[in-house]
Amino acid sequence: TVPGEWPCPGDGRCPQDSYLLPYFSALNQYLAVGVPVYFVTTGGYDFSSTNGTNAICSSAGCDSDSLI
């Protein structure tokens, strides 16, 4: 399989009438993610505080200028 694609649709592993096809299609469409990315910080962040965590997070409620 191609990295980043689910194996079922189009590669013959699922029957054409499989109930899983819509599930895998939705995963391909809405869960398109890349490889993991890691950042190494050299200091200055207090990860135990809310402000320190919000400075590097990427989900709802994070600072608009967060690292990620």
From TrEMBL:
GO cellular component, one term: plasma membrane
GO molecular function: cholesterol binding
Name of the protein in its database record: NPCL1 protein
Biological processes, Gene Ontology terms: cholesterol homeostasis; intestinal cholesterol absorption; sterol transport
